[in-house]
Amino acid sequence: GENVEQHPSTLSVQEGDSAVIKCTYSDSASNYFPWYKQELGKGPQLIIDIRSNVGEKKDQRIAVTLNKTAKHFSLHITETQPEDSAVYFCAARGGRGSTLGRLYFGRGTQLTVWP
Amino acid sequence: GAGVSQSPSNKVTEKGKDVELRCDPISGHTALYWYRQSLGQGLEFLIYFQGNSAPDKSGLPSDRFSAERTGGSVSTLTIQRTQQEDSAVYLCASSLDQGGETQYFGPGTRLLVL
After folding, report:
1. Residue B107 burial (CB < 10 Å; 0-12/13-18/19+)?
2. CA nearest A43 in B: which residue?
3. Span A27-52, pLDDT tens digits
4. CB pair distance less than 8 Å for A45 and B105
5. Could you tell me which of A49, A46, A51 has the C-alpha nearest to residue A31?
6. What is the pLDDT of residue B41?
7. Predicted confidence (pLDDT) at residue B27 exceeds the cutoff of 70
8. What pLDDT, on the 0 to 100 scale, is given for residue A100?
9. Are A108 and B31 an interchain contact pair (Cβ–Cβ within 8 Å)?
């Protein structure tokens, strides 16, 4: 099956700075890569996603890049704000056989934005 | 519109008791997933249902765990003879179908086994 690695596990930045979280995946057939934000006591919420036919996607202060050759994708948050503080998870959707449709998650990054 | 709902939001039980956790997916979503999240950990896949197909149970950690989905909608995750290591947040998600990429998560049930 798919294996997703996520780094760093914790990240602290000053308000206004940028934050970057990186993930790698193992299955070249994976074709969909969402990012989730989980605030304390809540379920994960989708914040942005990217498909394998696209190299970059932006939504206001959030962007995701995908390198299919290297099998890695990254989340970029610019002009960080204290309310961005949360745990962020990357995931890859299985692309073949019994893994089709399943999401494989990274272990999460605890982002703290200091005012 | 209504999102994924789960009940109860919190559950405290004694070791050895059985518990049932409920998930109401988004209306019209045919795929439903259960995950477990232990303190400070990522999401561990447990089981998933797709329409009327046999569920993918490959993530269930032991035969004390089971799940069913009645009428293609509501799902119940049952843990028999609970152990302290079962303490975790149990998350449910649904998507439009197996090919539907976006999974929408519920708020989770926080289970504490004493």
Report:
1. middle
2. B107
3. 988 889 999 999 998 999 999 999 88
4. yes
5. A51
6. 76
7. yes
8. 67
9. no
Number of H helices and number of E strands within chain B?
0, 10
Query: Cα–Cα distance between B53 and A44 in angstroms, integer?
Result: 26
User: Three-class SS of residue B80?
Assistant: coil
Q: Which residue of B has its CA nearest to A35?
A: B102
DSSP conformation letters of A16-55: TS-EEEEEEES-TT--EEEEEEE-TTS--EEEEEEETT-S
Which residue in A19, A108, A15 sits closest to A63, CA to CA? A19
Look up residue B3 and give its two tokens: 């999102």
pLDDT band at A98 (very low <50, low <70, confident <90, very high): low
Residue A54 is encoded by which pair of tokens?
């696209």
Between vectors from CA B42 to CA A19 and to CA B26, what angle results, nearest 5°? Answer: 95
Instruction: Residue count of chain A, please give it.
Output: 115
